[in-house]
């Protein structure tokens, strides 16, 4: 990203949890906006799917409290959540310091940012069987 882009904030997004304790900014391009329908995301979130977006890890800054991390796949993947309100915020893979996964709904303007529109649906065979019929 150029200094001009950084100065204008064109690639800077902010977000946080429901209660506001956990806050962050991410700077850089959106990577792989997608919906995951795996049983793991469904169980953890209480929803039939989750909407994930990747960002460059070096562009992540915790501006409030950092989330509490839980190893959902021990030694492989940790998920970050607010210890007060329980909001799911992020995911990181151990040993990968290049990308941070952010739940799109944790971003402040997820509903108006065209760069966040999901480009694929991951793990569809694991989705709730009625999901394809809901429409």
Automatic annotation (TrEMBL):
The keyword Repeat does not apply. Keywords: Lyase, Metal-binding, Zinc. Residues 13-125 form the CENP-V/GFA domain. InterPro entries: CENP-V/GFA, Mss4-like_sf. It holds the Pfam family GFA. PROSITE patterns: CENP_V_GFA. Belongs to the Gfa family. This is CENP-V/GFA domain-containing protein.
């Amino acid at each position: 990203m150029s200094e001009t882009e950084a100065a204008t904030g064109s690639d800077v997004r902010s977000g946080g949890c429901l209660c506001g304790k956990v806050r962050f900014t991410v700077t850089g391009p959106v990577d792989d906006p997608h919906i995951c329908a795996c049983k793991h995301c469904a169980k953890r979130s209480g929803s039939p799917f989750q909407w994930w977006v990747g960002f460059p890890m070096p562009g992540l800054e915790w501006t409030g409290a950092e989330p509490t991390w839980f190893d959902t796949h021990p030694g492989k993947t940790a998920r970050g959540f607010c210890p007060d309100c329980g909001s799911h915020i992020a995911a990181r893979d151990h040993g990968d310091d290049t990308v941070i996964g952010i739940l799109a709904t944790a971003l402040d303007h997820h509903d108006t940012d065209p760069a966040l529109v999901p480009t694929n649906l991951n793990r569809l065979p694991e989705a709730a069987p009625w999901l394809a019929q809901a429409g």
